[in-house]
Specification:
By secondary structure, the chain is mainly α. The chain is built from eight helices and no strands. The longest helix has 18 residues. 28% of the residues are buried.
Length: 154
């Protein structure tokens, strides 16, 4: 093996590659860790939401659980925003808006949207190129679904 092959092989070993389902799930995993806490409601809801998507249709409960555990381990090594950036690289354009919908749901499932979660959501819609008006519409729908109130402007 030439010296260049050794150098480039070493550089590639640290590179993370995700399948489309892994990328989608990684964005969801990043979201539920955005505030630094992982509530039971969020962990339960992520399994339900992902298992309902056509993207995960061939996944058994065990396979989905294994995928999520793998992503939680990657999250602990890389951190929330690094995992999000990696996932974004492998997420096709047609799944950007659905990812935002899932994240909006996950962030509201516990009935509280912390400042860190709000910051994460803003970062996400910009990263995913979801138009602001569409992102707002999606979020408002989720707020209504969970029967939550948004602060009124005076």
């Amino acid at each position: 093996m030439s010296i260049l092959n050794k150098i480039f092989k070493g550089a590639d070993e640290g590179r993370i590659s995700l399948s489309t389902p892994e990328a989608f799930a990684a964005i969801a995993v990043s979201a539920i860790s955005a505030d630094g806490y992982m509530r039971d409601e969020e962990r339960d809801r992520i399994v339900v939401l992902l298992s309902e998507l056509p993207l995960f249709q061939g996944y058994s409960q065990q396979r989905l659980t294994n995928l999520l555990e793998k992503l939680f381990e990657l999250l602990s090594v890389k951190g929330t925003y690094s995992l999000l950036a990696i996932a974004r690289e492998f997420l096709p354009a047609e799944l950007q808006e659905p990812a935002f919908v899932v994240v909006s749901d996950l962030l509201l499932v516990d009935g509280v949207l912390s400042a860190k979660e709000r910051e994460f959501l803003t970062h996400l819609w910009q990263m995913l190129d979801v138009p602001a008006d569409r992102a707002s519409q999606i979020f408002e729908q989720k707020v209504e679904e969970y029967n939550l109130r948004t602060p009124q402007k005076k």
